[in-house]
Amino acid sequence: MNIRELALRSGVSTATVSRALNDRAEVSEATRDRIRRLASELGYAPNEPARTLVRRRSDTIGLVWDTGYETLGFQHPFLQGLLSAVRNALSEADYHLMLLTTSGPGDADTTYLQAVRRHNLEGVVVLGTPADNRALRALAASDVPCSGIDVALSGPRTVRVTSDNAAGAAAAVEHLYAQGHRRIATVTGPLYLPPAAERLAGFRQACARLGLDVPPEYVVTGDFFLNSGQDAVRTLLATEQPPTAVFAAGDQMAIGALHAAADAGLSVPGDLAIVGFDDIDAASLVRPALTTVAQDQRALGSAAVKALRGLLDADPAEPAEPWIVPTRLVVRASSRPGA
Amino acid sequence: MNIRELALRSGVSTATVSRALNDRAEVSEATRDRIRRLASELGYAPNEPARTLVRRRSDTIGLVWDTGYETLGFQHPFLQGLLSAVRNALSEADYHLMLLTTSGPGDADTTYLQAVRRHNLEGVVVLGTPADNRALRALAASDVPCSGIDVALSGPRTVRVTSDNAAGAAAAVEHLYAQGHRRIATVTGPLYLPPAAERLAGFRQACARLGLDVPPEYVVTGDFFLNSGQDAVRTLLATEQPPTAVFAAGDQMAIGALHAAADAGLSVPGDLAIVGFDDIDAASLVRPALTTVAQDQRALGSAAVKALRGLLDADPAEPAEPWIVPTRLVVRASSRPGA
DNA sequence: CTGAAAGCGCTTACAG
DNA sequence: CTGAAAGCGCTTACAG
C-alpha cells in the first residue's frame, strides 16, 4: 500500500493525498477527512525514507550513548532512566531516535558525523560519554546541533545540559547543618570533570554561607567509585578533628563511606552522617538507606531535547546557554537521626 | 556532495560509482580503488534514505525497550548493559538501530508495527518489556521478525532469548551444597514470569539430584523487589527448621534477605548464606557483597541479534528454537565462609 | 567492464 | 481547492 494506491482508491491525485495527510491548509476539509479515514482503514503508512529524501529532513535525532567498545571508565550511574526520558521527550516532539555507534575501537574517526550525514539526522543528544574521543570531537566541531547531558562538548552548535550540581551540593550541606552538624567533610569526584568541580564549589559556598570552617583535610578527592569513598572516610576518621558528617559527591563513594564507618565501628547516622549524590538504585537498597541528592532524569531528558530544539532554531553565531536542571534532596536513614 | 558530483569528479557514471562503493564484482579493481579513494577524500557519504528507497531495505533494526509511558512494574535490572550489548552486536553486523516508542499512554495500538512499516525496519529486538501491551502483541502477531530477550512473544516469526535460568539456579544450589549446606530454601519471583518459573524448576531439580529435601515452607514466592525478599526470609527464619542457606531468584530480593538476616542478628554467611540472581550493580556494593548468578549481558545481546538474523533467513513456517545463554556464578562474601 | 535510463515513494512549486 | 510534472539520491536490470 503506497500513496499511489491510496490516491486511486480515493479518486484524487497523489498530491492531494499527500496534502491531506500532511495537514496542509489548501486541502478542503471534506476531502481531507475522507482521505484520512481511508488511509487508516487501509493501514496506510507513509514511507519515511521517501519523505526524507524529498523533504531533506528526517525528523530523526541521533543518540550517542557511550564511547563504543570497551570504555568502562566514567559511566553515568543512571543512563537507563536518562535514555527513557530522552526517548519520551523526543517522541513527544515527534522525532525519531537513532542510536549511533563508533564501528569499532580503532577507526572511530568521523563515524558519528558520517552517520549524521548519511541519515540526514537533524541533531544529536550525547549521554554520559567521556568527551575525549575523536569521533565525538569531530561531531561537536561540525555544524551539527549537539546537546550533551553532563558532557561539555566544544563546538559552534553545542549546548550542555546538567543538573544544578552546586545547588544540590549546597542542599546537602544545609540539610546536614540543620541536623546540627558543624564539622562537615566532602569526598569529591575527579576535579577535571565539571560535575565534580561544581559539586565541590557548591559545598564550599554553602559552608561559607553558614560560617562553617572547611580545613583542607576535609576535602578529599575520590574517583566516583566505591573504594575511593571508603578510603577517603578512613582518612577523614584519622584526622585530629574527624568530621561528624560527610558529603560524598557520588552515591558509590557514599556507599564506600558507609562501609568505612562500619569498619571503624561507627554507627550511621549517629556517629557519622552521610549524604551522597545521584540516587542510583543501590542508594535505597543499602543499609542504612542513603540520603542523597537525586538528579531528575526526566527533567534532564526533556531539557536535552528542548535545548537541542533551541539550537535548531537559533542563530548559529550565538553560543547557547547551558540548561541547568534542579535536583532534589532525598532524605533517608543515613542522615536522619530519628531513623 | 552526492553521487552525481562524485561521478563527475571521477569521470565515470553514477552507476559505476555506485558499483564501486557497493563492492560489486563487475567493476574493475583500478576504477574501484580510485573512486573509493576520492570518495573518502571528499568525505562523501551515501544518502541512506535514498538507498533504502530503491533497495527496499534499510539495514535497520528497531528496538522496543519498554512499554512506553509509565510502566514501572517489572524492569530488567540491567537493561543498560543489555542495550549496549545489542547495539554493539548490531553494529558489528552492519545494522543501524532505531528506538521505537508508543506515542503515548492511550493510542498505543499498532504503533510499533506502523513504525516498522514506515521505516522499512527489517526486524525488532524487544528488551525487558511486559509483553502484555497491545502494540507489542500486534507487532509479534505480524510477519515482522522479532527477537525478545526474556520476553515471550507469540507470533509466527518470533524467537525468545534467555539466560539459562534453570542451570543458573542449579549452580547456586550446588555451590551452597559444596559449602556444606543441606537445608536450602528459595525465594522465587512471580511464577507466571518464565524466568521465575525456570529458576524455581532448576532449584528443585538440583535439590533432587543432590538428595536434598525441599519442604513446602522452603519455597516462598516473592515479587523480585527488596521487601519481598526481606519478608520471605523473616518467614523462613520462623519455621521449625530454618534453612542455613537461601537462594533468592533476584538480587533485590537477595539484598532484602541480607537485611532480614541482619535484623535477626544472624551473620552472613556464618549463620545464613545467601545467593542472588542477575548481578545488578548493587550486588557488589552491599555488605557482605552478594554471591549471585550473573547473566551474561553481552552474550544475551549478541544472541538476540543472531536469533533475529536467523529469523530473517529462516523458513517462516518453522517455529524458531529459543536461544539459551549460559550464566556464571560469581562467588562473593555472602556465601563464602572464609570471607 | 561501463553507461543511459527507469524507477523506488514521496512532496512541492507551478498552473489552473 | 486540485492535478500534472519534476525531482529528491540512489541502484539495477538492460544493452553494449
How is the topology of this model organized?
The structure is a homodimer of 339-residue chains.
Chain A: H1 3-10, H2 14-21, H3 29-42, H4 48-55, E1 60-64, H5 79-92, E2 96-100, H6 111-119, E3 123-127, H7 134-141, E4 146-149, E5 158-163, H8 165-178, E6 184-188, H9 194-210, E7 219-221, H10 226-237, E8 245-248, H11 251-263, E9 273-278, E10 291-294, H12 297-313, E11 323-325, E12 328-330
The structure holds a DNA duplex (16 and 16 nucleotides).
Brief summary of the model shown:
The structure is a homodimer of 339-residue chains. With 339 residues, chain A is of the alpha/beta class. Chain A has three domains: 3-46, lambda repressor-like DNA-binding domains (434 Repressor (Amino-terminal Domain), Orthogonal Bundle), CATH 1.10.260.40; 60-163 and 299-325, Response regulator (Rossmann fold); 165-295 and 328-335, Response regulator (Rossmann fold, 3-Layer(aba) Sandwich), CATH 3.40.50.2300.
